[in-house]
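I am still learning, so can you show me any protein sequence you like together with the matching structure tokens, please?
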Amino acid sequence: MNLKASEIHQHFAEQGLIFGHLGPDNLISRFAPIDDCAPGDLVFVDNAKYLPLLRERKPAAVIADAAIAAELDTEKDLAILLAKNVRLATALVKQAYDDRDFYHSEWPRIHPSAVVHASVKVPDSAVIGPGVVVGADVELGEGAVLMANAVVETNARIGAGSVLHPGCVVSHGCEVGANVMLKAGCVIGSEGFGFAQDEKRRNYRIPHTGKVIIEDRVVIGANTTIDRGTYGATVIHAGVVIDALCHIGHNVEIGEDCILCAHTGISGSSKFGQRVIASGQTGVLDHVSVASDSVLLHRAGVNRSIKQPGMYAGGPTQPLQAYLKNIAIIPKLAEIWSRLKKLEKKVAELAGG
């Protein structure tokens, strides 16, 4: 990497992400974390506690907010790029200059081992890796990338700029929007968990004839599974971020810009509003809804609908402040129980006397 600080400033100035450049126009050779940086590096600093380390290690450039920059006015050899939101700048600047290149690899653009049905029109900008299988009547958008051993079944659609990491499966009829990332081992559109029982409690599979719709800018972590609808669609709306090892049941709807952390499981026909955050190991019962802007914490177990936005925790879920008070009592339960038994004994003695 040979990149000048002024290039970054110019690239992001129009959108207001980087709104100023102070100091020299240093050459940047690497993006680095603050605790492992060296001369020639660019670092991102959003907390004043890192300033002594920055002064000691002397990187070439820093992206920081105005308050941090004011603390660095004596560092005359440091290029300072001003950002209102340093964490957002970390994401967008690294995407622009320091991200993985999915379009150039050790393989031909379309690997000879890939199996692509004759009905599929592969755009000149698409990349298809080793062992990929693409079924009949699949639609591939411009710049779509299917990495090794990905499978896209018949009548599915992959939007422009979307990337399927190795081993992903997009089942028949499912729709993946633009600029979506499916990380390794995702299964989109597997049949949902639906069975009927007879009088002997033998199980009979109910065919799921719906699909999964994933809108634009969604990121789905490794080995996450999303079931197709029984009749209609399971819908993941735009901007949703789902961590690894999550499970989304049939006919679930996840609103825009939600965040689901690892091991979250959402049962069939439940609905999340917009911007809901579910922390790790959240569990959601079927046919419940969660209001927009809710936050689910501490292995939340949602067994009934949450109608008002707020912070909820525990299982069954309760408002966070009530949960914190209740959880503080748990270590004292044995003591409380012992005291209660003593009181009961005294009451019994008084009543008998």
In short: The radius of gyration is 27 Å. The first helix runs from residue 5 to 13. The domain at 3-97 is CATH 3.40.1390.10 (Udp-n-acetylmuramoylalanyl-d-glutamate--2,6- Diaminopimelate Ligase; Chain: A, domain 1). The mean pLDDT is 95.
